[in-house]
């Protein structure tokens, strides 16, 4: 026998039982971003490999170890996108929509791909909602991004489960001075560093600050602090951001070891972290990347953005019992019809009801069946109410109306009054 076909490890199916929560989360975010004036952009999931090497950095873990890269039939090196910012920058440059200082406030949603060790909340195909803003350089837009996420956590009921961490990486010049001081410090302790940190010290020393090795973390307690090397402009920008967060009342923690894993960040970096999924994990993160557009061939263009992991936030909603009760019900009303004449009338009646109540989730029975079998399907659907249409109801132009999830007797409702009755009952139900 041939081996059963299975999904690739770390690339998971999202089943019909799971998609209502995904749609709820994505819809909540989309409405929030619409309300703040952001517009959606959709980019391809495959890009030229050079795009990510130039933007993310060739000595990052993503480019060195994690990207899905292959040669296509033309011999071009292509990569499944590991993150969205580089692709978004490529798109705005290609189509010239940030030229002349045009402000662009964009967002996107979709799958990303990294060859990591699969674990709960971290997969090889994972999904992100990302947001990018171009041609705004002040701390006010940095604050807006954080305020939006704070509002989102409130709408989802997650504010008590997340913590905001902030840092500033300064300009490339001040970061260069800090890098020299950090390398000097690390060199004095090189024999005590873990193997990965020894490698990073030579290629990307700021990433050593992000180590999870406890012995290296202990050494870093005495390491130079980025804040001591900030230029005046970056310091003023960071103070402006903190002042705005204080004004709104958003709590935060300054984390001097927060550097993010991508080379393009400058000035503001931030992460929303949680300990509700086991070990502390990041659910949303981002920062400012004022030099990235120029680095990719465009004119100097300020940029800032963030991305949030959908899998982890869906897990949090489930773990904290923040899933809206109505998501467990996919059908509001189930229409049972008995006999060919009743089936024809049921089809016409159901479409009239949909015209009058476009948000009503109405399922009409398909495949005929006995009274018992249709009611069994109605109950299994999770519907609040069953509608019954047979020869007697057809003759009187009424439907039987039977509650399935609570008290109440079956009653007859005239066809002309059915929409109004359903509107009242489903809202109350």
Which helices and strands appear, and what pairs or packs with what?
Elements: H1 19-35, E1 39-40, E2 46-48, H2 49-55, H3 61-66, E3 68-71, E4 77-80, H4 85-95, E5 104-113, E6 125-134, H5 139-156, E7 163-168, H6 172-187, H7 195-203, H8 214-220, H9 232-248, E8 253-254, E9 266-274, E10 281-288, H10 292-295, E11 303-309, H11 310-319, E12 333-337, H12 340-356, E13 362-364, H13 371-380, E14 385-389, H14 391-396, E15 398-403, E16 411-414, H15 415-428
Helix pairs in contact: 1-5, 5-9
Task: Compose a concise summary of this entry.
One of its GO terms (cellular component) is cytoplasm. The chain is of the alpha+beta class and 429 residues long. It has helices at 19-35, 49-55, 61-66, 85-95, 139-156, 172-187, 195-203, 214-220, 232-248, 292-295, 310-319, 340-356, 371-380, 391-396, 415-428, and strands spanning 39-40, 46-48, 68-71, 77-80, 104-113, 125-134, 163-168, 253-254, 266-274, 281-288, 303-309, 333-337, 362-364, 385-389, 398-403, 411-414.
Descriptive overview:
39% of the residues lie in helices and 21% in strands. The protein is α+β, with helices and mostly antiparallel strands and 429 residues long. An eight-stranded mixed β-sheet has the order 1-5-6-11-10-9-7-8. Strands 13-12-14-15-16 form a five-stranded mixed β-sheet, sandwiched between helices. A three-stranded antiparallel β-sheet has the order 2-4-3. Helix 5 runs parallel beside helix 9 (232-248). The longest helix has 18 residues, at 139-156. It is elongated, with a radius of gyration of 28 Å. It comes from Pseudomonas brassicacearum subsp. neoaurantiaca. L-histidine binds at residues 83-85, 114, 128, 132, 260, 264-265. Belongs to the class-II aminoacyl-tRNA synthetase family.
């Amino acid at each position: 026998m041939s081996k059963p076909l299975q999904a690739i490890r770390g690339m998971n199916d999202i089943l019909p039982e799971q998609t209502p929560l995904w749609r709820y989360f994505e819809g909540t975010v989309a409405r929030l971003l619409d309300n703040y004036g952001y517009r959606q952009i959709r980019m391809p999931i495959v890009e030229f490999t050079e795009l990510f090497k130039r933007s993310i950095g060739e000595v990052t873990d993503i480019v060195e170890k994690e990207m899905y890269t292959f040669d296509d039939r033309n011999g071009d090196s292509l990569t499944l996108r590991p993150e969205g910012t580089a692709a978004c920058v490529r798109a705005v440059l290609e189509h010239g929509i940030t030229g002349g200082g045009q402000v662009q406030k964009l967002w996107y949603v979709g799958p990303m791909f990294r060859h990591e060790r699969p674990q709960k909340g971290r997969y090889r195909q994972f999904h992100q909602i990302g947001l990018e803003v171009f041609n705004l350089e002040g701390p006010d837009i940095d604050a807006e991004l954080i305020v939006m996420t704070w509002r989102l956590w409130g709408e989802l009921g997650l504010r008590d489960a997340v913590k905001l961490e902030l840092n500033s990486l300064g300009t490339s010049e001040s970061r260069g001075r800090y890098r020299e001081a950090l390398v000097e410090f690390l060199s004095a302790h090189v024999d005590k560093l873990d193997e990965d940190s020894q490698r990073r010290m030579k290629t990307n020393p700021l990433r050593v600050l992000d180590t999870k090795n406890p012995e290296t973390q202990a050494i870093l307690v005495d390491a130079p602090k980025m804040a001591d090397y900030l230029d005046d402009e970056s310091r003023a920008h960071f103070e402006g951001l903190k002042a705005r967060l204080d004004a709104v009342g958003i709590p935060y923690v300054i984390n001097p070891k927060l550097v993010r894993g991508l080379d393009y960040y400058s000035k503001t970096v931030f992460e929303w972290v949680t300990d509700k999924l086991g070990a502390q994990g990041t659910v949303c993160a981002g920062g400012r990347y004022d030099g990235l557009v120029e680095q990719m061939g465009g004119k100097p263009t300020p940029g800032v953005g963030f991305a949030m992991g959908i899998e982890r936030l869906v897990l949090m909603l489930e773990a904290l019992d923040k899933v809206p009760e109505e998501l467990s019900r996919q059908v509001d009303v189930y229409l049972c019809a008995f006999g060919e004449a009743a089936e024809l009338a049921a089809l016409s009646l159901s479409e009239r009801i949909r015209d009058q109540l476009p948000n009503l989730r109405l399922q009409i029975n398909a495949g005929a069946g006995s009274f018992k079998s249709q009611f069994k399907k109605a109950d299994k659907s999770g519907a609040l109410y069953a509608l019954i249409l047979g020869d007697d109801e057809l003759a009187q132009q009424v439907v039987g109306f039977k509650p399935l999830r609570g008290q109440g007797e079956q009653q007859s409702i005239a066809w002309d009054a059915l929409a109004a009755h359903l509107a009242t009952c489903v809202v109350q139900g």
